[in-house]
Write a structure and sequence with these properties.
It is a single chain. This protein is 67% helix and 4% strand. The two termini are 41 Å apart. It is elongated, with a radius of gyration of 26 Å. With 160 residues, it is mainly alpha-helical. It has two domains: 80 residues, lambda repressor-like DNA-binding domains (434 Repressor (Amino-terminal Domain), Orthogonal Bundle); 68 residues. It has a two-stranded antiparallel ribbon with strand order 1-2. Helix 2 packs across helix 3.
């Protein structure tokens, strides 16, 4: 379930209007409507304000499987400390291994693909069509991973 749906559901369960929630959170009415309609996502601070106003936790209002990046709230100032959005990154070692292994595996997948294709053409055996499709998909994935690893290493080297 999306964050907006969870906010609206919780607000309705408490029989609050959008205007009531806007007043309790000091978030503008139109911003609350935008959040509930999933036109935009709440910031960490908005999650905290809305959760407090609705008597719940920010985690309960977040989309399934996500977190708002809230790491802490400064007790003196009340300022929300947000974690940086984490991206799945690979290490330089992993990128080098992928850069070496993926082309080798791609060549193996290509050989299987071509062999299967030749057998399919020669024999017209139906089950080999499955092998051709699977090895062709593997080939595409391996080429894609090789390109991704190369791009990562290029950007990694530029950053140093």
């Amino acid at each position: 379930m999306d964050a907006g749906e969870k906010i609206a559901q919780r607000r309705n369960a408490l029989r609050l209007s959008v205007d009531d929630l806007a007043k309790r959170t000091a978030i503008p009415f139109d911003r609350i409507e935008s959040l509930e309609s999933n036109e935009s996502s709440p910031s960490a601070e908005e999650y905290l304000r809305i959760a407090e106003a609705l008597g719940t936790t920010p985690e309960e209002l977040m989309p399934d499987g996500l977190d708002a990046g809230i790491t802490s709230v400064d007790p003196k100032t009340g300022v929300v400390q947000e974690a940086r959005q984490r991206k799945l990154r690979m290490s330089p070692t992993s990128a080098i291994v992928r850069l070496i292994l993926c082309p080798i595996l791609a060549l193996i997948a290509l050989a299987i693909f071509l062999f299967s294709l030749l057998v399919l053409i020669a024999e017209f055996v139906d089950w080999l069509l499955f092998v051709v499709l699977v090895s062709g998909g593997a080939l595409f994935t391996l080429v894609e991973e090789t390109v991704r690893a190369a791009r990562y290493l290029i950007h990694y080297r530029k950053g140093k």
